[in-house]
Automatic annotation (TrEMBL):
This is Serine/threonine-protein kinase NIM1. The keyword Chaperone does not apply. It comes from Coilia grayii. GO terms for molecular function: ATP binding; metal ion binding; protein serine/threonine kinase activity. Belongs to the protein kinase superfamily. CAMK Ser/Thr protein kinase family. The lineage of its organism: Eukaryota, Metazoa, Chordata, Craniata, Vertebrata.
Length: 431
């Protein structure tokens, strides 16, 4: 019996064994509404999910999935539809990636389980979070942090290339996200502008870990060709196998080129010509790109993976020198059992806040214990992760990188970009 249903069965309406007169019906309705008033939000929700006609209908037609009220479609990919949804208890907005299992072959199912496992490993302000996983016989639902500001590809296609200063802010976040992935032995393998989402004017989240893989060591050899051809490193076309980190780094170089110029470094009408272009490594950077940025692009887009700029070298490069990276705080436990197992005295501020909020919603430590071991496939984990993330954000856990001092770009557009940045309050430029 699903959690909460037991209490509902005890308190809620029972099957009618005999018929009631009007006054008896009335009294019963009053009794039920009185009872409802005393239910916790969790009990009310689970009761509605079992007995309320409207809720049941919504569950049937897909307007509700688990504890989420599903709204319109906000995106789609080769394997999925992504819909906006609200958590019925916390009211937070989330994105639900819905995959039709019947359309996925064995390879795609393996990739899906890697996507989940990679996301479970990561907790970073610039990587989309996974809150919960739900499964029915036909579908998989990944409940994700909502990034409602559109994707980087659309932004550049509609508004043109990014100013040098804005480019730094965005690239610094991508760099921080990929560094976190590689430090946790996760290789993204599909880094591209379409998979960089905005949550605000300048805050980005790297999304879509559908082609990602977890390695034991960063030097492990991989042999699956995946990703988007314009972002593919030469070794993917040239060799039978490759190392993961340099492939992500190459894609970062293509992305940096695209952000700073609004065009792609390697373009061709056919895949074969594109492959030739990438293998030749021939591209030219417009002269108006600042010299330090040009040097970084050249340092990354090297045909030999062993010569490619490493992430730590990028962090110290001249172009990113004025950027003060935001150092994320230590990750918090993503499993609600942390609240049960920890000594109450040793709970962090965020955890205490979440524990209190869970109790208000009617989620007790017993509920958590009874559902342990289910990981992300548990509605309580979903609530817990949403609340923990909210508590982290309210304590400034997702601050943007800051540009300190005058941006030292010799090229003419940089000063203009810097001036325009000073007047946006969305991110901070300290002179
Ligand atoms: P593909 O492999 O073709 O890139 P996919 O099936 O793996 O696609 P995603 O890239 O994860 O799917 O998502 C498809 C689209 O849905 C994204 O391009 C984006 O527009 C939207 N989307 C995905 N995740 C989110 C999110 N967390 N918040 C808001 N929108 C999202
Ligand atoms: Mg995608």
């Amino acid at each position: 019996m699903p959690m909460g249903e037991k209490q509902v069965a005890q308190n809620g309406p029972r099957h009618r064994l005999w018929s009631l007169s009007d006054s008896e019906e009335c009294a019963k309705d009053e009794e039920e509404s009185g009872l409802k008033k005393h239910l916790t939000p969790l009990e009310r929700l689970t009761m509605n999910m079992c007995h309320d006609e409207k809720t049941l209908k919504e569950l049937l037609v897909g307007r509700r999935v688990g504890f989420y009220q599903v709204r319109g479609q906000i995106g789609s990919g080769s394997f999925s539809k992504v819909k906006l949804a609200f958590h019925a208890l916390t009211k937070d907005k989330v994105a639900i990636k819905i995959l039709d299992k019947l359309r996925l072959d064995a390879q795609s199912l393996r990739m899906l389980s890697r996507e989940i496992s990679s996301m479970e490993t990561l907790q970073h302000p610039n990587v989309v979070r996974l809150y919960e996983v739900m499964e029915t016989p036909c579908r998989m639902y990944l409940v994700l942090e909502y990034a409602g500001g559109g994707d980087l590809y659309t932004r550049i296609s509609t508004q043109g290339r990014l100013t040098d200063a804005f480019c730094k802010i965005v690239f610094a976040q991508i760099l921080s996200a990929i560094k976190h992935m590689h430090e946790n032995n996760v290789i993204h393998r599909d880094l591209k502008a379409e998979n960089v989402l905005f949550t605000g004017e300048a805050c980005i989240k790297v999304a879509d870990l559908g082609f990602s893989t977890r390695v034991k060591n960063r030097s492990d050899i991989l042999d699956t060709f995946c990703g988007s051809p314009p972002y593919a490193a030469p070794e993917l076309f040239r060799d039978d196998n490759y190392m993961g980190p340099p492939v992500d780094i190459w894609a970062m170089g293509v992305l940096l080129f695209f952000m700073s110029t609004g065009t792609m470094p390697f373009r061709a009408e056919t895949l074969n010509k594109l492959r030739r272009c990438i293998l030749d490594g021939s591209y030219s950077i417009p002269t108006w790109v600042s010299a330090p940025c040009q040097r970084l692009i050249r340092g990354i887009l090297r045909r030999d993976p062993s010569e490619r700029c490493a992430l730590d070298q990028m962090l110290g490069c001249e172009w990113l020198l004025p950027v003060e990276m935001f150092r994320p705080r230590a990750p918090l436990q993503m499993n609600p059992m942390a609240l049960v197992e920890a000594d109450p005295e040793s709970l962090l501020e965020e955890e205490e806040e979440v524990k209190a909020r869970l109790e208000e919603l009617g989620i007790t430590m017993d509920h958590i214990t009874n559902n342990q071991g289910k990981g992300s496939r548990c509605a309580i984990t979903g609530v817990y992760r949403i609340l923990i993330h909210r508590a982290q954000k309210s304590r400034g856990a997702e601050r943007l990188p800051v540009i300190r001092g005058v941006v030292k770009d010799p090229k003419r557009d940089s000063l203009r970009a810097y001036r325009s940045l000073r007047h946006t309050s969305k991110f901070c430029v300290i002179a």
